[in-house]
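Saturday, quiet lab. Running sequence design on the structure tokens for the scaffold JK sent over.
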């Protein structure tokens, strides 16, 4: 239910912005977002919450005709503009496909069934979702092993009036089309990505997202921001009732003043950008009749016993996380499978050699 409400809120919020979304700081930030990624020709990319296609078509230029880009967005107006760009581009963007869908329910989009991508991008959208961890976990199922997810999350002082508005809405139990409270630092984004099972490559701060850097507002300017965000720009009609507006006004002033230091409220024009990789797994079928050698590392025997006890036939499937494997002291021919911190192989093979081994 929460996801469906998020989708409906996003449509209300962005439908009104569709016609004016391009032609401002979004364009430049999108180019900067892309500059941090190693996009190569021939790659297949999934651009989620693609909006008007600002990033989608830049990605298409990078992957070339031998690659492909799939753009997904839930807002009709935004996707219509992206569709116009694709049409105007003609054959140049024959490698682009666009789909109207909820990015939290990609399994409902037939065109994505069975697909896996080299790269997934989510620009200026992660803080829209009520459960970012669940969203990242869902998206990761569409990554190839070793594939990259690139996302950004808002600095807690970015668009300060919107952050205050979120606090007001939460206190009044009203819907708000974003969820920024969890995004506090580079560390919180890294922790979010890791909690979703990804291996973080890098997290860093991108300054001057909209071009103004840092600025300070007088504490008594709260009412100007209240009028702008709650009355003028309330496209969702969340605060349409006069009674709600009166309550919101008092809370807005209170939350604004909490942010002030020496009579000034600081606004920081920055986001955190994270690049994470899906862990590489492979599998090896090992005969239970063969004599197995297990390199004596922590938990190896328990891992072997669990695998044996769950086998339904004479062969055991062993899941392998190649990304967490330490390097061998030396390599011989016919390497066997490496499973996390334990190295399991058939005894008749010559294996990767680690110190301190024992045969079972």
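Result came back. Writing it out in full:
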């Amino acid at each position: 239910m929460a996801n469906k409400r998020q989708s409906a809120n996003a449509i209300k919020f962005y439908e009104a912005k569709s016609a004016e979304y391009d032609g401002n700081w979004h364009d430049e930030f999108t180019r900067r977002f892309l500059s941090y990624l190693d996009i190569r020709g021939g790659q297949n990319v999934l651009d989620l919450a693609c909006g008007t296609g600002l990033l989608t078509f830049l990605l298409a230029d990078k992957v070339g005709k031998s690659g492909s880009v799939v753009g997904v967005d839930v807002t009709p107006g935004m996707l219509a503009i992206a569709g116009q760009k694709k049409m105007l581009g003609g054959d140049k963007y024959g490698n682009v496909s666009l789909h109207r869908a909820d990015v939290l329910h990609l399994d409902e989009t037939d065109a994505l069934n069975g697909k896996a991508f080299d790269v997934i991008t989510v620009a200026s959208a992660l803080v829209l979702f009520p459960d970012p961890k669940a969203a990242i976990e869902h998206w990761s199922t569409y990554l190839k092993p070793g594939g990259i997810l690139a996302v950004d999350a808002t600095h807690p002082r970015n668009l300060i009036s919107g952050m205050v508005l979120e606090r007001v809405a939460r206190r009044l139990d009203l819907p708000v089309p974003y969820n920024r409270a969890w995004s506090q630092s580079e560390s919180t984004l890294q922790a979010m990505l890791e909690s979703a099972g990804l291996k973080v490559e890098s997290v860093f701060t991108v300054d001057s997202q909209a071009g103004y850097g840092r600025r300070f507002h007088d504490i008594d300017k709260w009412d100007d921001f209240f009028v702008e965000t709650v009355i003028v720009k309330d496209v969702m009609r969340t605060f349409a009732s006069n009674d709600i507006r009166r309550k919101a006004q008092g809370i807005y002033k209170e939350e604004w003043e909490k942010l002030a230091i020496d009579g000034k409220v600081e606004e920081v024009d920055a986001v955190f950008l994270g690049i994470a990789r899906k862990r590489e797994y492979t599998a090896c079928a090992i005969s239970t009749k063969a004599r197995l050698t297990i390199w004596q590392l922590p938990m190896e025997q328990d891992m072997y016993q669990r695998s044996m006890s769950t086998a339904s036939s004479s062969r055991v499937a062993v899941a392998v996380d190649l990304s967490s494997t330490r390097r061998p002291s030396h390599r011989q021919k016919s390497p066997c499978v490496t499973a996390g911190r334990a190295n399991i192989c058939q005894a008749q093979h010559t294996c990767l050699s680690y110190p301190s081994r024992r045969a079972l």
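Notes for JK: The chain is about 35% helix and 25% strand. The radius of gyration is 25 Å. Ask whether to fix the surface positions before the next round.
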